[in-house]
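Can't paste images in this forum, so I'm doing it all in text. The chain is below; anyone willing to post the predicted structure tokens underneath?
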Amino acid sequence: MAADLEQMKQKYASVLKLIDQNGVRLSHMHIQDGKFFLQGAAGSEAIKNRVWDELKRVNPSLDDVTLDLTVDPAAAPPPATAAAAASVSGGSSAGRRTYTVAAGDSLSKIAKSFYGNANQYMKIFEANKDKLSDPDKIKPGQDLVIPE
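Text version of the structure:
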């Protein structure tokens, strides 16, 4: 299955956008053996899993793509681009960041992703006291406010 690099970039645009938003460092992106070949390092296992999930959403058979992602905490995104699950909510609180907790997350891990310092986890806890009773008890799927 011969493939053109530009066609593959278009087909997997949502995957490439997710990679970019999460600060995944790509070391290779080319056509190899007729497949779109992506190789790089994600800042966390959660980011790596999000990329895989999006890849499988675009092409469940994975028949025209090869993804080789390792986990390297040094590849974690800087605070300004942290986490694809981060979003800006609308309404009167425009500019407020939220984050949807993923499996394996902790407040310190989220703080490291957004602020570059795991010790800032209490900042997130304080902003979410309406939802959290203990900083060590967060659940996947929870939407947390991430203060500036």
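Residues 79-146 form a domain with the Membrane-bound Lytic Murein Transglycosylase D; Chain A fold (CATH 3.10.350.10). The first helix runs from residue 5 to 11.
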